[in-house]
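Handout, section B. The chain below has 188 residues.
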Amino acid sequence: MRLLDNFLQRWRGSVARRWVPRGSRVLDVGCHRGEFLQSLGSSLQFGLGLDPLAPPLTTPRWTLSRDRFPTSKPLAPNSFDVVVMLATLEHVQNKDELVRECFRILRPGSRVVVTVPSQLVDPILILLTRLRLVDGMSLDEHHGFDPCDTQPLFFRHGFQLVCWREFQFGLNHLFVFSKPEAVTRAPR
């Protein structure tokens, strides 16, 4: 990753980190090399990072696994406090399956923290990639995802919106959703 890639990644992480309570069990979907989990330091109880390109790695507080989410070996229900997806959701083909699995593995009252780029980002990244200022990681996988589709996607699966805001000069969106405290039945 280039300097600008790292800067933008750290910026996303700093916006998301505020939504991760101290002592949380965190699942980082699309973790890259574990930068976000590492940035949580001692405030993290346990972290699991999943990414098809992640280097397998285990530290005292977190583990990286070269895997997709949902995983081939299902994670335990109600086992995480926070699911983080930073610049990841737009790359996922079956978003409904992903959100359904987030609901299943989160404890009641827990949250999902998501960042997704504005649709204006793709042409900017193409230019910055041509200028060799960014690597434009997996840019071809954005699939024209519209950030306006994020709320309905999570609502459809039983989540409630806690926060939505733009950042990075309106080129990125932060969404925070919570799993309700009391769930009478899992949404379909």
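Note. The mean pLDDT is 89. Compare this with the example in section A.
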